[in-house]
């Protein structure tokens, strides 16, 4: 892949961070990808001029035998083995999800304890972007932001953001920051892809653009549906994520696959590359998150960052995916 021009970095909102327009999803590390393969994927990713890696303290506690922290641990072992890589990457992790018997949440004490575990597992002295994984209605936004303020002052965190927040929750947190002179969420992480458009488009996207927030989207390929690998109920057994994909196999989903196929043929690309290029081209998106379990998949993701869609391509995808 190295012969291709590396994509230009983009400012991640007002966070002070710059990232290439694709984020590696680390949820697969310690789940469907072992450590040696993880190292090879991370090396290829950075060598291609990409730099942002997304993980969370809870990844991948859902796997039998895991307890959470496995993804951060693998990334940390990679950084420990290759210390020169630390300055090449933007490390993104999250706090607040329930891990086993631990309730999670965004109380100051829990954040202070959790960050130390993440720093230790990641073999680093700072996290570039620390995200509130889920809203915590039981904890005032001021308490959470004050905890982050302390971490920023100590140099343990560079910027903060929020995942899975709706427009009202985000607005309340931004207002609390302004009122109390506390650090603001500068990045959000919503679910968004060609099929799942409704939860981000509208008030949340409007707020993100108005406030200059960085936006990194998750489920960018709709759990793999937009790769074109699943086209009927018979295909759902193809991966561990298959059962979650049945909901996409409706008339609109098949229309989207049809449009992706057409644009992909025109560019000699894969449907997943087109779906990611659509996100990369969207106003109000800094970069999609996508994961890969093989070098072939990763090379395809890298190609997506070099794919430019024209007005006809975008119109075809818009028409097929327009929310009902």
From TrEMBL:
The keyword RNA-binding does not apply. This is Aldo/keto reductase. GO terms for cellular component: cytosol. Residues 21-320 form the NADP-dependent oxidoreductase domain. GO terms for molecular function: oxidoreductase activity. Signal peptide: none annotated. The lineage of its organism: Bacteria, Pseudomonadati, Pseudomonadota, Betaproteobacteria, Rhodocyclales. Keywords: Oxidoreductase.
